[in-house]
Design a protein that fits this description.
Zincin-like; 3-stranded mixed β-sheet
Length: 121
């Protein structure tokens, strides 16, 4: 089953709004249980950004920290990317950009996903 971040936000009771913001693609406002997404983004960026911001909400993040950003990226990647589909695509896709486009995620989130799947040396 495909992960729908808008449906997930609704289940969590999180308001999602689109506004003109310059500082980021998305913001989690915990005191208001609201995620603000930059309006006008391409659908793939909107979806990935929302999944990332939901991660902040679901993981209880209340302030900006590097570790929180890493955790939010991993959370988003593991929900947006299905392992079976990912590995099948990587078998024929000429590069990560093509695979990411087929998966409906950003290249960055695909890289985060692949890194999380690779055992540490």
């Amino acid at each position: 089953m495909e992960y729908d971040p808008y449906e997930h936000a609704e289940k969590l009771g999180i308001n999602v709004i689109h506004r003109k913001i310059r500082s980021a693609n998305g913001l989690w406002l915990p005191d208001h249980r609201t995620i603000v997404l930059r309006e006008g983004m391409r659908a793939v960026w909107d979806r990935c950004t929302l999944a990332h911001e939901i991660a902040h909400a679901d993981l209880g993040h209340r302030k900006d920290e590097v570790a929180h950003e890493v955790a939010a990226d991993r959370y988003a990647a593991t929900r947006l990317i299905r392992a079976d589909r990912c590995w099948a695509l990587l078998a024929w896709a000429p590069d990560a950009h093509t695979a990411a486009a087929e998966l409906g995620v950003t290249t960055r989130l695909l890289q985060v996903y692949l890194k999380a799947q690779t055992p540490a040396a």
